[in-house]
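Prompt: May I have another protein with tokenized structure?
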Amino acid sequence: MTALYTEHHDVLLSFVRRYVRSPEQAEDMVQETLLRAWRSIDRIDPSQVTIRSYLFTIARNVLTDSWRAEQRRPEPLYDDEALAAVPSADDVEAALEGHVITAALERLSGEHRDVIQALYFEGLTVAESASRLTIPEGTVKSRAYYAVRNLRAAFEEMGVLR
């Protein structure tokens, strides 16, 4: 087998590379050719056939098998616009969370919703929220406490929390 490889590898490789795109794929096909020849080495009669022509026949069969296999597999699409339009798992999850949070916020009173908006979504401090909403800081804290409590109850009703 070593002599077979040494003597015919380069010739087989140049033959296969004419029909195959990548050098790695060509190497794989030559290896498959030599493996098939090794499996049937006892059936080769050197007086009847030359070894090189026998190897070329096997290589042609390996190429044909590869082409047929490629025809059975669908060609992958590389459409960047289509791939960008498909939402990722994170986008879907974030959209669902946003929907659930919006539904829960709608269950709050307008005063509680304003405090939650200012504190949690806009990131304002208690003093900044009080100034913007024109209410005392203690009222902001109290409304935030009850708003969070009501949100927790709304999430439990929706089946999000247990």
Notes: DSSP finds eight helices and no strands in the chain. The chain has a mean pLDDT of 85. The first helix runs from residue 2 to 17.
